[in-house]
Amino acid sequence: MRRVVWITIAMAGALAILFASGLAASPDDRAELLKAREAVWRSWFANDTKTLEALVPPDTIVISSGEEKWKNQTDVLQSAARFQAKGGKLIRLEFPRTEIQRFGDVAITYSQYLYETEVDGKRSLTSGRVTEIFVLRHGKWTNPGWHTDTERVDRVQRRSELVPHSLARVAAETKRSSYTCHFGA
After folding, report:
1. What is the CATH number of domain 25-174?
2. What is the full DSSP assignment across 48-94?
3. pTM value?
């Protein structure tokens, strides 16, 4: 009887170790995941359809702040093409904070983001939060879903309680004497 108890305890411990090791992201896994996340964002801004199709599968679900319709891969590809057709360019992309939860072949990232774009010679800053789902398929991370909430920042105000650190840096870089911060679409 004792032997059965010890074998059961040993098996439970071994299973717990195997299960826990599948949940924790190693530094290499984290780097690959963040590389895939960066590739998704940059390929959207560049309208790199081939990369987007590889990283954003057909079963993708996208929920964006202020938009009633949920999107799929086709919508993502079309919106990237529209941005590019308007002459849109990505100037800067930052993720000041990212937390990752890993559950086997699924990872969820929670991030703050900031990007600066230029369309028709006019630059704009957008910041917000994003929750993204990544799935490891055939040894590569894919991004089949995300939800964003967005704050559009047209001009930057110096008051530190309203301006995230990276936006305060933008204010310093532009060397303008007055700033106003406008949040919302």
Report:
1. 3.10.450.50
2. -HHHHHHHS-TT-EEEETT-SS-B-HHHHHHHHHHHHHTT-EEEEEE
3. 0.70
